[in-house]
Design brief:
The complex is a heterodimer of chains A (265) and B (113). Chain A is of the alpha+beta class and 265 residues long. Chain A is built from 11 helices and 7 strands. A 5-stranded mixed beta sheet of chain A has the order 3-7-4-5-6. Chain A has a two-stranded antiparallel sheet with strand order 1-2. The N and C termini of chain A lie far apart (66 Å). Chain B is globular, with a radius of gyration of 14 Å. Classes of the chains: A alpha+beta (265), B mainly alpha (113).
Chain lengths: 265, 113
Protein backbone atom coordinates (compact mmCIF):
# COMPACT_ATOMS: atom_id res chain seq x y z
CA UNK A 1 0.00 0.00 0.00
CA UNK A 2 1.20 3.50 -0.81
CA UNK A 3 -0.19 6.74 0.56
CA UNK A 4 0.86 10.20 -0.48
CA UNK A 5 0.90 12.62 2.42
CA UNK A 6 2.19 16.09 3.16
CA UNK A 7 4.48 16.93 6.03
CA UNK A 8 2.86 19.51 8.27
CA UNK A 9 4.51 21.56 10.90
CA UNK A 10 3.87 20.59 14.56
CA UNK A 11 4.86 22.31 17.77
CA UNK A 12 7.45 19.84 19.01
CA UNK A 13 7.60 17.47 16.01
CA UNK A 14 6.43 17.66 12.40
CA UNK A 15 3.93 15.03 11.24
CA UNK A 16 2.20 13.44 8.26
CA UNK A 17 -1.57 12.91 8.53
CA UNK A 18 -2.98 9.78 6.87
CA UNK A 19 -6.67 8.78 6.52
CA UNK A 20 -8.11 6.66 9.34
CA UNK A 21 -9.95 4.36 6.91
CA UNK A 22 -7.22 2.48 5.08
CA UNK A 23 -5.94 -1.03 4.45
CA UNK A 24 -2.63 -1.77 6.15
CA UNK A 25 -0.19 0.76 7.63
CA UNK A 26 -1.52 0.09 11.12
CA UNK A 27 -0.54 2.12 14.18
CA UNK A 28 2.73 0.74 15.48
CA UNK A 29 3.99 -0.35 12.02
CA UNK A 30 7.37 0.93 10.95
CA UNK A 31 7.34 2.74 7.58
CA UNK A 32 9.86 4.34 5.24
CA UNK A 33 9.30 7.95 4.29
CA UNK A 34 10.84 9.16 1.02
CA UNK A 35 10.33 12.38 -0.89
CA UNK A 36 7.75 11.99 -3.65
CA UNK A 37 9.56 13.95 -6.38
CA UNK A 38 12.59 11.63 -6.20
CA UNK A 39 10.37 8.59 -6.43
CA UNK A 40 8.49 10.01 -9.42
CA UNK A 41 11.78 10.78 -11.17
CA UNK A 42 13.02 7.28 -10.48
CA UNK A 43 9.79 5.73 -11.75
CA UNK A 44 9.63 7.77 -14.96
CA UNK A 45 13.24 6.92 -15.65
CA UNK A 46 12.58 3.21 -15.48
CA UNK A 47 9.09 2.76 -16.82
CA UNK A 48 8.80 2.05 -20.54
CA UNK A 49 5.83 3.18 -22.62
CA UNK A 50 3.22 0.64 -23.63
CA UNK A 51 1.29 1.05 -26.88
CA UNK A 52 -1.71 -1.30 -27.20
CA UNK A 53 0.01 -3.90 -25.00
CA UNK A 54 -2.62 -4.82 -22.44
CA UNK A 55 -0.89 -7.67 -20.64
CA UNK A 56 2.72 -8.63 -20.43
CA UNK A 57 4.21 -11.43 -18.36
CA UNK A 58 6.57 -10.12 -15.62
CA UNK A 59 9.46 -12.21 -17.02
CA UNK A 60 9.11 -10.44 -20.37
CA UNK A 61 9.25 -7.09 -18.60
CA UNK A 62 12.53 -8.14 -16.98
CA UNK A 63 13.87 -9.15 -20.41
CA UNK A 64 12.79 -5.81 -21.91
CA UNK A 65 14.50 -3.83 -19.16
CA UNK A 66 17.66 -5.87 -19.74
CA UNK A 67 17.46 -5.21 -23.48
CA UNK A 68 17.16 -1.48 -22.88
CA UNK A 69 20.14 -1.36 -20.54
CA UNK A 70 22.38 -3.51 -22.81
CA UNK A 71 21.56 -1.34 -25.84
CA UNK A 72 22.02 1.86 -23.83
CA UNK A 73 25.50 0.71 -22.87
CA UNK A 74 26.35 0.16 -26.54
CA UNK A 75 24.75 3.23 -28.08
CA UNK A 76 24.78 6.58 -26.41
CA UNK A 77 23.02 8.79 -28.92
CA UNK A 78 19.86 6.88 -29.71
CA UNK A 79 16.49 8.62 -29.93
CA UNK A 80 14.37 5.65 -28.94
CA UNK A 81 14.35 1.86 -28.57
CA UNK A 82 11.16 0.04 -29.53
CA UNK A 83 10.28 -3.59 -28.88
CA UNK A 84 7.68 -5.07 -31.19
CA UNK A 85 6.49 -8.31 -32.82
CA UNK A 86 5.27 -11.64 -31.51
CA UNK A 87 7.29 -11.35 -28.28
CA UNK A 88 4.59 -9.00 -27.03
CA UNK A 89 1.82 -11.56 -27.56
CA UNK A 90 0.78 -13.66 -24.55
CA UNK A 91 2.76 -16.88 -24.16
CA UNK A 92 6.06 -18.01 -25.54
CA UNK A 93 5.15 -18.50 -29.19
CA UNK A 94 7.91 -16.29 -30.59
CA UNK A 95 10.99 -17.05 -32.67
CA UNK A 96 12.97 -13.93 -31.90
CA UNK A 97 12.58 -10.45 -30.43
CA UNK A 98 12.16 -7.57 -32.88
CA UNK A 99 13.82 -4.32 -31.89
CA UNK A 100 13.77 -0.97 -33.67
CA UNK A 101 16.53 1.46 -32.74
CA UNK A 102 15.77 5.03 -33.75
CA UNK A 103 18.68 7.42 -34.13
CA UNK A 104 20.91 9.26 -36.54
CA UNK A 105 24.03 7.24 -35.84
CA UNK A 106 24.91 4.12 -37.79
CA UNK A 107 24.39 1.10 -35.56
CA UNK A 108 26.36 -2.15 -35.69
CA UNK A 109 23.28 -4.38 -35.68
CA UNK A 110 25.17 -7.67 -35.78
CA UNK A 111 27.30 -6.81 -32.77
CA UNK A 112 24.31 -5.74 -30.64
CA UNK A 113 22.30 -8.80 -31.69
CA UNK A 114 25.22 -11.04 -30.65
CA UNK A 115 25.65 -9.21 -27.34
CA UNK A 116 21.94 -9.49 -26.52
CA UNK A 117 21.88 -13.16 -27.50
CA UNK A 118 24.90 -13.84 -25.32
CA UNK A 119 23.27 -12.30 -22.23
CA UNK A 120 19.66 -13.30 -22.75
CA UNK A 121 19.92 -16.53 -24.77
CA UNK A 122 17.23 -15.40 -27.24
CA UNK A 123 17.55 -14.51 -30.93
CA UNK A 124 17.11 -10.85 -31.89
CA UNK A 125 16.24 -9.01 -35.06
CA UNK A 126 17.27 -5.36 -34.98
CA UNK A 127 16.17 -2.68 -37.43
CA UNK A 128 17.98 0.61 -37.17
CA UNK A 129 16.57 3.75 -38.75
CA UNK A 130 16.36 7.50 -38.35
CA UNK A 131 13.22 9.35 -37.38
CA UNK A 132 12.54 10.59 -40.91
CA UNK A 133 12.57 7.05 -42.33
CA UNK A 134 10.32 5.87 -39.51
CA UNK A 135 7.75 8.60 -40.16
CA UNK A 136 7.84 8.08 -43.92
CA UNK A 137 7.49 4.31 -43.38
CA UNK A 138 4.51 4.84 -41.10
CA UNK A 139 2.86 7.05 -43.71
CA UNK A 140 3.32 4.75 -46.66
CA UNK A 141 4.15 1.22 -45.56
CA UNK A 142 1.53 -1.15 -44.10
CA UNK A 143 4.31 -3.23 -42.54
CA UNK A 144 5.53 -0.29 -40.44
CA UNK A 145 2.00 0.43 -39.33
CA UNK A 146 1.52 -3.19 -38.32
CA UNK A 147 4.84 -3.24 -36.54
CA UNK A 148 4.15 -0.15 -34.46
CA UNK A 149 0.50 -0.83 -33.77
CA UNK A 150 1.61 -2.81 -30.73
CA UNK A 151 4.92 -2.01 -29.12
CA UNK A 152 6.83 -1.02 -25.99
CA UNK A 153 9.27 1.85 -26.20
CA UNK A 154 11.98 3.20 -23.97
CA UNK A 155 10.87 6.78 -24.51
CA UNK A 156 7.49 8.25 -25.33
CA UNK A 157 6.87 8.69 -29.01
CA UNK A 158 4.06 10.49 -30.73
CA UNK A 159 3.28 10.35 -34.40
CA UNK A 160 0.47 11.32 -36.67
CA UNK A 161 0.00 9.18 -39.74
CA UNK A 162 -0.59 11.08 -42.97
CA UNK A 163 -1.40 8.17 -45.22
CA UNK A 164 0.38 8.22 -48.58
CA UNK A 165 -0.13 5.34 -50.97
CA UNK A 166 3.06 4.29 -52.75
CA UNK A 167 1.83 1.76 -55.29
CA UNK A 168 5.29 0.51 -56.21
CA UNK A 169 5.91 -0.30 -52.58
CA UNK A 170 2.59 -2.13 -52.29
CA UNK A 171 3.44 -4.06 -55.47
CA UNK A 172 6.70 -5.10 -53.83
CA UNK A 173 4.90 -6.29 -50.71
CA UNK A 174 2.16 -8.06 -52.65
CA UNK A 175 4.63 -10.09 -54.68
CA UNK A 176 5.76 -11.71 -51.41
CA UNK A 177 2.35 -13.29 -51.01
CA UNK A 178 2.40 -14.90 -54.45
CA UNK A 179 4.62 -17.77 -53.30
CA UNK A 180 1.81 -19.14 -51.16
CA UNK A 181 -0.11 -20.11 -54.30
CA UNK A 182 2.83 -22.07 -55.67
CA UNK A 183 4.25 -23.70 -52.57
CA UNK A 184 1.01 -24.21 -50.67
CA UNK A 185 1.32 -27.93 -49.97
CA UNK A 186 4.87 -27.70 -48.64
CA UNK A 187 4.72 -24.46 -46.72
CA UNK A 188 4.56 -24.52 -42.95
CA UNK A 189 1.51 -23.08 -41.18
CA UNK A 190 3.40 -20.08 -39.91
CA UNK A 191 4.76 -19.25 -43.39
CA UNK A 192 1.21 -19.40 -44.74
CA UNK A 193 0.02 -17.13 -41.93
CA UNK A 194 2.64 -14.47 -42.75
CA UNK A 195 1.69 -14.53 -46.44
CA UNK A 196 -1.99 -14.20 -45.61
CA UNK A 197 -1.35 -11.47 -43.05
CA UNK A 198 0.71 -9.59 -45.63
CA UNK A 199 -1.99 -9.66 -48.31
CA UNK A 200 -4.73 -8.67 -45.86
CA UNK A 201 -2.73 -5.77 -44.47
CA UNK A 202 -2.26 -4.48 -48.05
CA UNK A 203 -6.01 -4.82 -48.65
CA UNK A 204 -6.86 -2.90 -45.47
CA UNK A 205 -4.21 -0.27 -46.18
CA UNK A 206 -5.66 0.36 -49.65
CA UNK A 207 -9.10 0.65 -48.10
CA UNK A 208 -7.60 3.29 -45.78
CA UNK A 209 -8.28 1.27 -42.66
CA UNK A 210 -6.28 1.39 -39.48
CA UNK A 211 -3.86 -1.51 -39.13
CA UNK A 212 -3.06 -3.66 -36.14
CA UNK A 213 -2.54 -7.37 -35.58
CA UNK A 214 -6.00 -7.74 -34.09
CA UNK A 215 -7.71 -5.91 -36.97
CA UNK A 216 -5.82 -7.92 -39.60
CA UNK A 217 -6.47 -11.24 -37.84
CA UNK A 218 -10.18 -10.44 -37.58
CA UNK A 219 -10.28 -9.66 -41.31
CA UNK A 220 -8.45 -12.91 -42.15
CA UNK A 221 -11.00 -14.92 -40.16
CA UNK A 222 -13.83 -12.99 -41.73
CA UNK A 223 -12.68 -13.41 -45.34
CA UNK A 224 -11.38 -16.96 -45.27
CA UNK A 225 -13.69 -18.31 -42.55
CA UNK A 226 -10.81 -20.00 -40.80
CA UNK A 227 -9.25 -19.37 -37.40
CA UNK A 228 -5.74 -17.97 -37.02
CA UNK A 229 -4.81 -20.99 -34.87
CA UNK A 230 -5.87 -23.35 -37.67
CA UNK A 231 -3.76 -21.42 -40.18
CA UNK A 232 -0.72 -21.48 -37.91
CA UNK A 233 -1.25 -25.19 -37.28
CA UNK A 234 -1.44 -25.77 -41.03
CA UNK A 235 -5.02 -27.00 -41.04
CA UNK A 236 -6.33 -25.03 -44.01
CA UNK A 237 -9.03 -26.57 -46.21
CA UNK A 238 -6.99 -26.53 -49.39
CA UNK A 239 -9.05 -25.96 -52.62
CA UNK A 240 -11.62 -23.52 -51.23
CA UNK A 241 -9.00 -21.45 -49.49
CA UNK A 242 -6.72 -21.28 -52.52
CA UNK A 243 -9.62 -20.17 -54.72
CA UNK A 244 -10.47 -17.29 -52.35
CA UNK A 245 -6.83 -16.35 -51.88
CA UNK A 246 -6.18 -16.34 -55.63
CA UNK A 247 -9.22 -14.16 -56.22
CA UNK A 248 -8.08 -11.68 -53.58
CA UNK A 249 -4.50 -11.66 -54.90
CA UNK A 250 -5.65 -10.95 -58.45
CA UNK A 251 -8.03 -8.18 -57.47
CA UNK A 252 -5.39 -6.43 -55.36
CA UNK A 253 -2.79 -6.85 -58.08
CA UNK A 254 -5.12 -5.29 -60.66
CA UNK A 255 -5.93 -2.41 -58.35
CA UNK A 256 -2.28 -1.69 -57.55
CA UNK A 257 -1.14 -2.02 -61.15
CA UNK A 258 -3.81 0.31 -62.49
CA UNK A 259 -2.70 2.98 -60.00
CA UNK A 260 1.01 2.33 -60.61
CA UNK A 261 0.49 3.37 -64.20
CA UNK A 262 -1.03 6.67 -63.12
CA UNK A 263 1.61 7.18 -60.43
CA UNK A 264 4.48 6.66 -62.89
CA UNK A 265 3.23 9.25 -65.36
CA UNK B 1 9.89 -38.31 -52.02
CA UNK B 2 10.64 -37.43 -55.71
CA UNK B 3 7.29 -35.62 -55.75
CA UNK B 4 8.44 -33.64 -52.71
CA UNK B 5 11.71 -32.89 -54.44
CA UNK B 6 9.88 -31.41 -57.41
CA UNK B 7 7.68 -29.34 -55.12
CA UNK B 8 10.73 -28.10 -53.21
CA UNK B 9 12.33 -27.15 -56.53
CA UNK B 10 9.19 -25.20 -57.47
CA UNK B 11 9.23 -23.28 -54.16
CA UNK B 12 12.94 -22.63 -54.65
CA UNK B 13 12.19 -21.26 -58.14
CA UNK B 14 9.37 -19.06 -56.77
CA UNK B 15 11.61 -17.46 -54.17
CA UNK B 16 14.59 -17.10 -56.49
CA UNK B 17 12.35 -15.48 -59.11
CA UNK B 18 11.12 -13.05 -56.47
CA UNK B 19 14.70 -12.23 -55.46
CA UNK B 20 15.79 -11.67 -59.07
CA UNK B 21 12.72 -9.55 -59.93
CA UNK B 22 13.53 -7.28 -57.00
CA UNK B 23 17.24 -7.11 -57.87
CA UNK B 24 16.35 -5.95 -61.38
CA UNK B 25 13.68 -3.53 -60.15
CA UNK B 26 16.19 -2.10 -57.68
CA UNK B 27 18.54 -1.33 -60.56
CA UNK B 28 15.78 0.45 -62.49
CA UNK B 29 15.11 3.20 -59.96
CA UNK B 30 17.00 5.91 -58.15
CA UNK B 31 14.72 6.52 -55.17
CA UNK B 32 16.88 5.66 -52.18
CA UNK B 33 13.88 4.86 -50.00
CA UNK B 34 12.57 2.24 -52.42
CA UNK B 35 16.03 0.88 -53.28
CA UNK B 36 16.57 -0.28 -49.70
CA UNK B 37 13.15 -1.96 -49.64
CA UNK B 38 13.87 -3.82 -52.89
CA UNK B 39 17.23 -4.86 -51.48
CA UNK B 40 15.66 -6.16 -48.26
CA UNK B 41 13.09 -8.11 -50.24
CA UNK B 42 15.85 -9.60 -52.40
CA UNK B 43 17.74 -10.70 -49.28
CA UNK B 44 14.61 -12.21 -47.65
CA UNK B 45 13.55 -14.15 -50.74
CA UNK B 46 17.10 -15.30 -51.37
CA UNK B 47 17.40 -16.55 -47.77
CA UNK B 48 14.18 -18.55 -48.14
CA UNK B 49 15.42 -19.97 -51.46
CA UNK B 50 18.65 -20.94 -49.73
CA UNK B 51 16.73 -22.79 -47.01
CA UNK B 52 14.83 -24.78 -49.64
CA UNK B 53 18.05 -25.45 -51.58
CA UNK B 54 19.45 -27.09 -48.45
CA UNK B 55 16.57 -29.56 -48.49
CA UNK B 56 17.11 -30.69 -52.08
CA UNK B 57 19.52 -33.45 -53.07
CA UNK B 58 22.31 -33.39 -54.10
CA UNK B 59 22.95 -30.91 -51.30
CA UNK B 60 26.65 -30.22 -51.77
CA UNK B 61 26.95 -30.79 -55.51
CA UNK B 62 25.44 -29.20 -58.61
CA UNK B 63 22.09 -30.51 -59.86
CA UNK B 64 21.83 -32.85 -62.86
CA UNK B 65 21.78 -31.01 -66.20
CA UNK B 66 18.10 -31.89 -66.74
CA UNK B 67 17.16 -30.12 -63.48
CA UNK B 68 19.36 -27.12 -64.27
CA UNK B 69 17.68 -26.63 -67.65
CA UNK B 70 14.24 -26.95 -66.06
CA UNK B 71 15.08 -24.43 -63.31
CA UNK B 72 16.67 -21.97 -65.74
CA UNK B 73 13.76 -22.08 -68.13
CA UNK B 74 11.12 -21.75 -65.44
CA UNK B 75 13.02 -18.99 -63.65
CA UNK B 76 13.57 -17.06 -66.84
CA UNK B 77 9.89 -17.30 -67.82
CA UNK B 78 8.70 -16.28 -64.39
CA UNK B 79 11.03 -13.32 -64.00
CA UNK B 80 10.40 -12.13 -67.57
CA UNK B 81 6.62 -12.39 -67.11
CA UNK B 82 6.67 -10.39 -63.86
CA UNK B 83 8.93 -7.71 -65.33
CA UNK B 84 7.03 -7.45 -68.63
CA UNK B 85 3.82 -7.07 -66.69
CA UNK B 86 5.32 -4.15 -64.83
CA UNK B 87 6.79 -2.58 -67.97
CA UNK B 88 3.31 -2.69 -69.54
CA UNK B 89 1.97 -0.89 -66.45
CA UNK B 90 4.41 1.99 -66.73
CA UNK B 91 7.54 0.85 -64.87
CA UNK B 92 10.58 2.36 -66.58
CA UNK B 93 14.29 1.57 -67.04
CA UNK B 94 13.87 -2.16 -66.49
CA UNK B 95 16.77 -3.95 -68.13
CA UNK B 96 15.60 -7.39 -69.31
CA UNK B 97 19.16 -8.29 -70.35
CA UNK B 98 19.95 -8.69 -66.67
CA UNK B 99 17.62 -11.68 -66.31
CA UNK B 100 20.05 -14.37 -67.51
CA UNK B 101 23.01 -12.73 -65.79
CA UNK B 102 21.19 -12.71 -62.44
CA UNK B 103 19.89 -16.27 -62.93
CA UNK B 104 23.39 -17.64 -63.62
CA UNK B 105 24.77 -15.74 -60.65
CA UNK B 106 22.10 -17.07 -58.28
CA UNK B 107 22.40 -20.68 -59.48
CA UNK B 108 26.16 -20.61 -58.94
CA UNK B 109 25.81 -19.06 -55.48
CA UNK B 110 23.35 -21.74 -54.43
CA UNK B 111 25.54 -24.55 -55.86
CA UNK B 112 22.79 -25.53 -58.24
CA UNK B 113 24.98 -25.19 -61.32
Amino acid sequence: MEIIGRISRGTKMDQIYIPKTRQGLNPGDYVVITPLDKKINQKTKEKPYFYNVKNLEPIKMIIINNIFSIIEEKIRNYKNIIITGSFLETGSDFKDIDIIIIGNEKVNKGEIEKELEKYLGIKFDIISLDNKTLISGLNSDPLYQMMLSKCISKKRFLYKIKKEINYKLLDLHLLKSKNLLEGFSLMRGREKYYSIRNIISIKLFLEKNKLSNEIVNREIENIFKISITDIKENMIDNPKFIKNYNKLYNSLFKKIMSRTKNASK
Amino acid sequence: MPQNRNQFIDILIGNLANAIVHTILEKSIDKQELISKYRNETINSYDIAKRYREKINPIAEPFPIKDISYIKEKLSNKVRAELNLRISKGYQNINLDLINIEINKALKELSIE
